[in-house]
Amino acid sequence: MNDTIVVAGGGIGGLAAALALGRRGHRVVVLERNAEFSELGAGIQLAPNGLHALDRLGVGDAVRAAATPMRELRFMDGVTGEHVTSLPLTGQYRRRFGRPYVVVHRADLHRQLLDACRAMPGIELRAGLPVTGYTQTGSSATVRLDGGGTVTGAAVIGADGIHSRIRRQLVADGEPRISGITVYRTVLSMAHVPAGIRRDAVTWWAGPKCHFVHYPIAGGRLLNMAASHDDGATTAVTGVPASTALVQERLAPLTGVHHLLGLGRDWRSWTLVDREPVDRWADGRVVLLGDAAHPMLHYAAQGACQALEDAVVLGELLEPGSGSVAECLETFNLQRRERTAAVQRVSRDSIRLWHPAGPEAAARNRMLKAMTAGQLHDAVAWMHGVREFGAQRSGAAR
Hints:
single chain, 398 residues, alpha+beta, FAD/NAD(P)-binding domain, eight-stranded mixed β-sheet, six-stranded mixed β-sheet
């Protein structure tokens, strides 16, 4: 089996899939809807499972060179300013999970994957070609392009994001679920960051119906800032400008970071959306991957990691000579759906950790304070500690 494989979507998941397949000798055509291959957004967190996947894709060292390792995940009570607990990310964590926990600019991660794809002769990158759907026969699969035209291969990989047109046809589950939470994002030059802000940690400030997270990116030159507010939003918005005063108002309960929020400029807002897990995202010679298959809220910081895991498993299953394409894609779906569904659910459920108030917040603080470093590591091991990404059962599902 060494025919052309068509990948719809040139984001992190699509490029990782192309790289995994190209490394196994397949010809791959990647179709990107935008006029150029680029990645929107700012910071992204990569746990050890994501770095293990990047190593398997051959770009782990390059990504680590562009990333910043973190020493801890800090949980703060944003109302009282109390440091509740920290999950240490050095020493025992690295020995146990085999890789560091890093943060990186999303564009830097995308660029490393893109450069690796460009360096591989068997991968063709074609921009400005939105995919609208697919057809298939017993021996091939074809994507339809907006404005006419088709591209045919032995298989189609739908890596076209949460609004996937491939998913719209394959799963037919309508629009994404609106979470009712608005997130405001910006980056701040580290030259303007107050001296007391940790530059070697991911820090969360939790409060009633809101929380704020910040960490360094771009080699420590910028501070990535994301502020979430449970405002009951019912309409999805993407990248809408927001004033600094509005962000401060929405996160008013977080008294300890009011000044830091005030330093932010060029805030933009997004309504957070996800989907319910589904059992089936394979159809013959067509399969979904990444956010097209299992979109999740960003609160577990696993969206990119799960897409990278997908790519590794897909490449291994579509090893040339491995048999029927449809059977391989069905196996991919079966091997990945339980783990990714568990991460989707924990990403949504974690809101209960960030947003309680009063006695519930006090109880949360007591619970977290009582946990040892080893217990905190145990709690994330089912996500961070996995190195073989197929046929894995998550701790949440055991």
